Amino acid sequence: MKFKLKNWVVGAALATLSMSTFAADTIKIGSVLSATGPAAFLGDPEVKTLQMYVEAINKEGGVLGRQLELVYYDDGSDANKANGFAKRLIHDDKVDVIIGGTTTGATMSMVPLVEKAEIPFISLAGAVVIIDPVNKWVFKMPHTDRMAAEKVFEDMKKKGISKIALMSETSGYGQSGKKESEHVASKYGIDIVAQEVYGPKDTDMSPQLTKIKNNPEVQAVFIFGLGQGPALVQRNYKQLDIKLPVYESHGVCSDEFIKLARDAAEGTRLPCAALIVANDLPDNDAQKPVVTAYEQAYKARWKSDVSTFGGHAYDGLMIYVDAVKRANSVDKAKVRDAIEQTKGFIGTGGEFNMSPTDHMGLNLSAFRMLVIKNGKWTLAD
């Protein structure tokens, strides 16, 4: 049976959250996110989303008659800091759930901690390694890097592209994406004939791109990274006047990518969640009411455009809230079981159907193939 959570209406200015503001019986939502550093354009909307929906839910009376309390730390895009903050959330703050891990590296640094502590953990990072193999207490919201590679290769196959160059970031997400791309390429008749890597803090990728440009076999380029790096790659791409089609992963599904890449983003094809093209969805699309409501609320509260990354935070919080309601408890084991039993949840990322063997619950149809035209996201043909 399908269900949809109430669309929370976001009202007045957000009150500052502090320990003294709440009674002892609050439901504590712990979070470690990358609001600053190279992954900031992913983490910043995630933080803002959690803040505004915790506020909105509290104004509506909370959950099971209890207020939510957001306990949040910024890891500065540093996986080591994420590990330390996760320890603080578990042992000092004694939170009921952890939502976060903006990046794969941060998430994986926290996984052993939450497994040992037996606390539900909902990651907002992309790599498939987060939920494959399944860890009992770990779930995730975004589509996986494996799914992104498959969606891209499916599109390439339709366009008659069979030989490509893969440009991957040295981050956890980028290297997992590289591995998964290599793993599924042959399934779609794709031959990776050239490979290059770049660091997340690199500012000039021209040498790697020059090698790709000079390879006569390459028919298209697939860039696998997140944050600001892919935008800089594409600016170098344009500077070198490379005419080959370019694809990105879902690690750049934000207006910030277009702003950073500028006109170099034109024509880029990539898979994203429906949220990024909310108003272009047909009226009978099951996700349209959810994504348009989120977009309106976010823009009204923060006076800025939405990104799929903020949407993942919405999905994570709302799936947790729904699990608490179905369990009629905040007992960690009962809530964990309820999250695992999530079925038919329509979120910004797609329809979630979880199980003991699938702690994400999305399939390939949850991705929409997009192309950037005239500086705007549009549904691809």
List keywords for this structure.
11 helices, 4-stranded parallel β-sheet, Rossmann fold, 2 domains, about 375 residues, disordered N terminus, 14 strands, 5-stranded parallel β-sheet, alpha/beta
Write a concise synopsis of the structure shown.
The protein has 381 residues and is α/β, with parallel strands linked by helices. Helices cover 38% and strands 17% of the residues.
Describe the structure.
The chain has about 375 residues and is of the alpha/beta class. The protein folds into two domains: about 20-145 and about 285-365, Rossmann fold, CATH 3.40.50.2300; about 145-270, Rossmann fold (3-Layer(aba) Sandwich), CATH 3.40.50. The chain is built from eleven helices and 14 strands. It has helices at about 40-60, 80-90, 105-115, 145-160, 170-185, 205-215, 230-240, 255-260, 290-300, 310-325, 330-340, and strands spanning about 25-35, 70-75, 95-100, 120-125, 140, 165-170, 190-200, 220-225, 245-250, 270, 345, 350, 370-375, 375-380. The chain has a five-stranded parallel sheet, sandwiched between helices. A four-stranded parallel sheet has the order 7-6-8-9, with helices on both faces. A three-stranded antiparallel sheet has the order 10-13-14. Helix 3 links the parallel strand 3 (about 95-100) and strand 4. About 55% of the residues are buried.
